[in-house]
Amino acid sequence: MPMPISMGRGGGSSLVPTTVHPISLPGGIVAGEMLAVLFQGDDNAQIGIDAAVSGLGWEMIQLGLRDGRRYAWIWKMAAGLDVLALTTAQPETSWHTSRRWLHAIALRQAPASFTPRGNDTMWQIALGHYTAAALIEAD
Predict the structure, then answer these.
(1) What residue spans define the domains of the chain?
(2) Which residue did the predictor score with more confidence, 95 or 67?
(3) 33-59: per-residue pLDDT in tens?
(4) By the 8 A CB rule, do 54 and 103 touch?
């Protein structure tokens, strides 16, 4: 079981308040890779997945509020022609970062203190005022 490897990254922002937030995914996505996004809205409005644009298979882990901003992890196993748009319940500016992972099968919110098992990898990233950690499970 090899360790998960980050194969590319993307990111972006919506600097004009909006309720629809297109997500910049990494280039070169290959079916079977895992895609992972950390999203931050500038207010406390609920975050959703725009299924009409994004299709099926995306999963979300709401991380709650930090300094009045809402955060979420969003992930899926890539099909190869993947797109993602998120929605917020009210117009907001937003920021996001994305990665594509080889040899990964799931993303889990990492507890405050933990040790990865086997070849699992911890991905820790700062976005805005928040540092989030996720456990990338090896295949």
Answers:
(1) 5-138
(2) 95
(3) 999 999 998 887 789 999 999 999 999
(4) no
Q: Tell me what pLDDT residue 3 has.
A: 82
pTM for the complete prediction?
0.87
Chain mean position to CA 47: 12
**Encoding tokens for residue 110?**
């990492």
Residue type, 118: G
Instruction: Spell 30-54 as b/e; 16+ CB within 10 A means b.
Output: eeebbbbbbbbbbbeeebebbeeeb
61 by Cβ neighbours in 10 Å (0-12 / 13-18 / 19+) ranks as: middle
Only one residue has tokens 């099909």, namely 79
Q: How far is Cα of residue 57 from the mean position of the Cα atoms in its chain?
A: 13
